[in-house]
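Dear Dr. L.,

I hope this message finds you well. Following up on our conversation about the binding site, I have prepared a predicted three-dimensional model of the protein together with heme C. For your records, I am including the exact sequence and ligand specification that went into the calculation, followed by the structure tokens. Please feel free to forward this to your student if that is useful.
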Amino acid sequence: MPGWRLSSVLVVVAPLLVIFVVLTRTPTAAQTTSGDAGRGAALFQQCAACHSLEPGVHLTGPSLAAIWNRPAGTVPRFGRYSDGLKRAGITWDAATLDRWLARPQAVVPDTTMTFPGMENAHQRADVVAYLKAVAEGKAPPTAGGGMMAMGPRTDLKRVGKERRVTAIRHCGDAYHVTTESGRTIPYWEFNLRFKTDGSPNGPQPGNPVLATAGMQGDRAQVVFNGLDDLKRFLVERCEEPAR
Ligand code: HEC
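The resulting structure of the complex is given below.
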């Protein structure tokens, strides 16, 4: 009887199918869902130089506060995405994040995320679990992240007058930087960098900030609020300004 035979075949085959599906799915499921958010928070230190987990705070890379289930390249007010990431057509979930963190360049060849990738699948799963927990409000965004010593997170509106710049003049191969404390420091022009920081932690308009950089103390940077200050402060003049 064909009906009887079909059902007995099903009785044998159905459990085998279930076992097959479970066996073949388990490795991916383990890789993508068994991450430990606590360990991921510590591992996020590898990302924290370039990514904040506070909403709206963009560094070299966009804020990752709400990356879970978001289409790639769409974090609001981050205007520096590569064309490749914007057109990737990916939505961030456990599987896509796992591939991205293994080797970003393999997903988007022209990406500007200059990160070699994490080889260890368990570590990737931990970071992914942490990003999910942060997005769902289950993990504090600051845990493990920490701030880089030279990072842009120091509030440059709260520096002392020995770092608040009142004048900069260029003469020959030097910049002479005068601070509110009355000191004028000469720098070889090649050792002084100029930056702008219009973020909430950037300097006050009209108050550029001097920060030393490097081990020798011969290098420094001046951070301006924006281009208006940069254009106004940089002048060519060899005489000391009259006091
Ligand atoms: C050297 C800086 C740098 C490091 C380190 C870095 N990233 Fe990125 N990340 C970027 C930049 C820049 C982008 C934007 C890439 C683009 O547009 O192609 C980005 C993009 C991303 C995106 C996609 C964001 C979006 O809006 O689609 C994710 C997710 C991401 N990074 C996660 C991480 C994680 C997790 C780590 C640590 C394991 C990390 N990144 C380390 C700079 C970095």
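In brief: The CA atoms of residues 155 and 200 lie 8 Å apart.

With kind regards,
A. P.
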